[in-house]
Design a protein that fits this description.
The complex is a heterodimer of chains A (233) and B (612).
Chain A (H helix, E strand, L loop, with lengths): L1 E9 L8 H14 L16 E3 L8 E11 L5 H5 L7 E9 L5 H4 L2 E10 L8 H10 L4 E5 L5 E5 L4 E10 L2 E11 L2 E2 L2 H11 L6 E15 L2 E4 L8
Parallel strand pairs in A: 3-11
Antiparallel strand pairs in A: 1-3, 1-4, 2-3, 5-9, 5-11, 6-7, 8-9, 9-10, 11-12
Chain B lengths: L2 H5 L25 E7 L3 H4 L3 H11 L4 E7 L3 H9 L18 E5 L6 H11 L14 E5 L15 E3 L4 H15 L5 H9 L4 E2 L4 E5 L5 E6 L7 E2 L27 E4 L1 E2 L9 H5 L4 E2 L2 H15 L3 E5 L9 H12 L5 E3 L7 H11 L7 E5 L3 H6 L6 H13 L4 E8 L6 H21 L9 E8 L16 H14 L5 E5 L2 H11 L6 H10 L12 H10 L4 H4 L15 E2 L4 H12 L16 H6 L8
Parallel strand pairs in B: 1-2, 1-3, 3-4, 4-5, 9-19, 10-13, 13-14, 15-16, 16-17, 17-18
Antiparallel strand pairs in B: 5-6, 7-8, 11-12
The chains are: A alpha+beta (233), B alpha/beta (612).
Organism (chain B): Fusibacter tunisiensis
Protein name (chain B): Radical SAM family uncharacterized protein
Protein name (chain A): Radical SAM-linked protein
Chain lengths: 233, 612
């Protein structure tokens, strides 16, 4: 038995694939290429595929991580040759002997967000706002939990890093490292909503494009790419 | 607004993005013949259709042809498209449909006609063929409903009658001359009439008498009097589908499909497909096994279905299933059969299939009494039914679905009550024979659909039941079926009434369809969108009477709108079969001896099969 860890990108039209569709696609590509999938025991045997963090439909990613259990190892060079529909590429692959699960370990995600407003926003001091925002103690928003309760969350607890990248004409681009994992997640669009509200910006948004750049866990106060996760013992 | 902005705002954007496993994307230049295969329903329905998969693959094997796909956008997408003036586009290259050379619609059911016009509307293409200029795509259509092309004949340039694999390629040879401007559009259409199987309605003008009855078509110049259907003579050696597009999202039939034969020898009198696809042509076990291997290897599907009109009747079904099960069992790849006939032989096959996966069981006795089953020539006996219940329940199944039709010719209350009797026999048998370990309770589901008389069947002259008659029969069954273990589902009669009108309609219905579209009718095959009142309004506005088409008795010598088509089966044979039906006389399976339908003479010019 072998656990194969894969880092992949999901861009172009493939960003409209939902999480279940993406899982199904990986399974199909593995089957077409005769990868020795390990099936679960039981009445309806299914192969074992785990994805670190679901991505909203419409977001692209440069480097997401998944794992699949195989009966035996196949050469990594063959894995990297697997051909996916245009928009999905395998970036790295490695066999791991790691008990920790991707889903329980992932803590942060890096996003590049492009907002297109209906009007010119080039006069707005986004750069200063970002700096002052990060100095604040607390900016809260309400979130409905799965049980239907309302939970108040301090958005600053969920932001690791925030930088304004570019602002011209109708466009503002920023980069943010946000919580993403079992201890809470900050959706980039939610952040935009909270941020704009805080600075009382009443500009209408035409569209938001979100690109995830990578997934991370923290180790000794630094962020490490999830692909490099190892057991710590 | 660009396309991506739209995609972010709709549910299931994967319906529109293309790029699935085994799709094509070819470089586009001026020489490339651009073909759009258009399915006038939502993606999930269209992608479950095997014919599309075959023709998509076949056309794309032609170097100078790029076949793309287009479906009816779902209502949320359509609203966004109209709001932002986004024209209908192909999935592969996202090109406007109006940039295609040829748009080919598949006509799978009558209630998709408004969707065809709606797609043309969304593409900005003129709907009436006479209004389309040379720069607009040629609009062609094929599929089972093309056997009575008349209701949509005003919108379509060329109909393809019968199986399209060969005739499409023959047509492309003519089209290539048009593409390089050697011939004009009119010349192209005239050339098309010389190809067997192609019907160009503009060269045929329907003539009616004072009472409104169709009496003939006035033909233009040298076009043939009747258009003969096309079929693949040697199905075992013809074009073999070796892979399929694998959709991203869950479609209706999310599995590989392998055709094992075309045609059917049963001779059920209500069944249009059974008449249209004659004669029977089987693939060999070796060919089927190769088809399965090719498709499974290239799609990654975990289930495949052996399709045909009646797969249990494949002559070597036992060997085939045993071979396939033993080959695929260890890979967790399941076999399924779409339609099962009630007899003990099927049960052995079921045992094999069950080794891998327990699929749902569905059986179609079609009618509640032996008498009525004889009328429709459905070769299922009371004895078959009880022995099947015996076998399946003793094997450990506890759920079964039974399909029936209401509104069959000569139907009486006893026949309706017979449906209830069969359902009760099922639950009773379960109690008698269930194995000890089976702790679950039995569930028998009875589904009734409303019978629609179709062209080229022995029932093509008979009146369809009226809406009121259907409603009465359904309500009778609702009261009659009171066994708690029996669930009764019924198909709404309004849609069947409209289907009945279009199935045997003529060219005067074209304007009604366009009117209905303007009134807001679309996705008429979908319960949640079907609006019978709007349709009634469309008929009233255009002063066309539905009853003329569905509940009227036609005389045997009436000239029928589809008499322009030669489906191979002799009209006199159909008349004879109708009379035999009324007398309750059964006609044998034609494997047991020729029943004289005429297809051997008109279409293949010889015996249907040498060894039968």
């Amino acid at each position: 038995m072998a656990t194969l860890r894969i880092a992949y990108s999901k861009e172009k039209y493939m960003k409209y694939l939902g999480h279940l569709e993406l899982m199904k696609l990986f399974e199909r590509i593995f089957r077409v290429n005769k990868m020795p999938l390990k099936f679960s025991e039981g009445f309806n045997p299914i192969p074992k595929l785990t994805f670190a963090a679901p991505l909203s439909v419409g977001y692209s990613t440069k480097y997401d991580v998944m794992e699949v259990t195989l009966d035996r190892e196949v050469p990594i060079s063959d894995v990297l040759k697997l051909s996916f529909p245009d928009g999905i590429d395998l970036k790295d692959a490695i066999y791991v002997d790691c008990k920790a699960s991707l889903m329980s370990k992932v803590e942060y995600a890096d996003y590049l967000v492009k907002i297109e407003f209906q009007n010119d926003v080039s006069q707005l001091p986004f750069k200063d706002w970002v700096e002052s925002f990060m100095q604040l103690e607390s900016v809260t928003y309400d979130k409905k939990t799965k049980k239907g309760k309302i939970k108040t969350i301090n958005v600053l607890d969920q932001i690791y890093k925030l930088t304004s990248v570019y602002c011209m004409e109708n466009e503002w681009i920023f980069k943010g490292t946000f919580a993403s994992g079992s201890n809470g997640s900050l959706n980039p669009e939610k952040f935009v909503e909270v941020f704009l509200k805080h600075y009382k910006i009443e500009k209408t948004i035409e569209s938001i494009e979100v690109e995830r750049l990578g997934l991370y866990f923290s180790e000794n106060d630094a962020l490490v790419n999830l692909f490099d996760l190892k057991d710590t013992e | 607004m660009n396309l991506e902005t739209l995609l972010r705002q709709v549910e299931k954007p994967t319906r529109y993005i293309g790029g699935e496993i085994n799709t094509f994307n070819k470089p586009i230049d001026d020489q490339m013949i651009r073909f759009a295969f258009a399915f006038p329903d939502v993606y999930e329905v269209g992608m479950s259709h095997l014919g599309m998969q075959i023709l998509y693959r076949l056309l794309n094997t032609q170097e100078d042809v790029f076949c793309e796909r287009v479906f009816s956008p779902w209502v949320d997408m359509e609203a966004k498209m109209r709001e932002s003036q986004q024209k209908l586009f192909t999935l592969e290259s996202k090109s406007p449909l109006s940039h295609m050379d040829i748009v080919g619609f598949t006509l799978q059911y009558e209630l998709s006609y408004t969707n065809i016009l709606n797609m043309l509307d969304l593409a900005g293409i003129e709907k009436y063929a006479k209004d389309r200029h040379d720069k607009e795509p040629l609009i062609i259509a094929g599929g089972p409903c093309a056997y009575n092309p008349e209701p949509i004949a005003d919108f379509i340039d060329i109909f393809f009658i019968g199986e399209a694999e060969e005739v499409l390629l023959e047509f492309l040879d003519v089209y290539r001359r048009y593409k390089v401007n050697q011939i004009s559009k009119d010349e192209l259409l005239l050339e098309a009439t010389k190809i067997e199987g192609l019907y160009v309605p503009k060269f045929y003008v329907p003539i009616y008498d004072e009472s409104g009855l169709l009496i003939k078509y006035e033909r233009n110049r040298s076009v043939p009097e009747k258009v003969k259907k096309r079929l693949i003579r040697d199905f075992d050696k013809g074009y073999q589908l070796d892979t399929m597009i694998v959709p991203f999202n869950d479609i209706v039939h999310d599995r590989a499909m392998v055709e094992i034969f075309r045609g059917c020898t049963k001779g059920c009198r209500f069944c249009q497909a059974g008449m249209l696809y004659r004669p029977i042509r089987e693939k060999s076990v070796q060919t089927i096994e190769k088809n399965v291997r090719d498709i499974i290897d290239s799609t990654g599907y975990e289930e495949f279905s052996l399709t045909s009109l009646s797969s249990m009747d494949y002559s070597e079904i036992d060997t085939l299933i045993r071979n396939l099960v033993s080959e695929y069992e260890s890979d967790h790849i399941g076999v399924s059969l779409p339609s099962l006939r009630l007899d003990s032989f099927s049960v052995d096959v079921l045992k094999e299939i069950q080794k891998i996966r327990k699929t749902g069981l569905t059986f179609a006795p079609e009618a509640g009494t032996q008498r009525l089953r004889d009328v429709i020539n459905k070769g299922v006996s009371d004895e078959n039914i009880s022995s099947t219940f015996n076998s399946i329940f003793s094997l450990g199944w506890h759920r079964v679905k039974l399909y029936f039709m209401i509104g069959l010719p000569t139907e009486t209350v006893e026949d309706l009550d017979g449906i209830n009797d069969i359902a009760n026999l099922g639950t009773h048998t379960f109690k008698q024979v269930r194995p000890e370990y089976m702790k679950k309770n039995v569930q028998v589901t009875v589904s009734t659909s409303c019978f629609v008389p179709k062209p080229f069947t022995p029932f093509q002259w008979m009146p369809q039941d009226s809406l009121e008659q259907f409603k009465e029969k359904i309500s009778h069954l609702k009261h009659k079926i009171n066994n708690k273990k029996v669930v009764y589902n019924y198909h709404d009669p309004e849609t069947s009434v409209l289907e009945g009108v279009f199935a045997r309609g003529d060219r005067r219905l074209s304007k009604v369809i366009l009117r209905a579209l303007k009134l807001g009718c679309k996705f008429d095959g979908w319960q949640e969108f079907f609006n019978f009142e709007l349709w009634q309004k469309a008929f009233e506005t255009e002063q066309v009477d539905m009853a003329f088409y569905n509940t009227r008795v036609r005389s045997f010598d009436e000239f029928l709108p589809w008499d322009i088509i030669d489906a191979g089966v002799d009209k006199r044979y159909l008349e004879l079969e109708y009379k035999r039906a009324l007398n309750g006389e059964v006609t044998q399976d034609c494997r047991e001896g020729c029943t004289g339908c005429g297809v051997n003479i008109s279409i293949i010019g010889g015996e249907c099969y040498g060894d039968a």
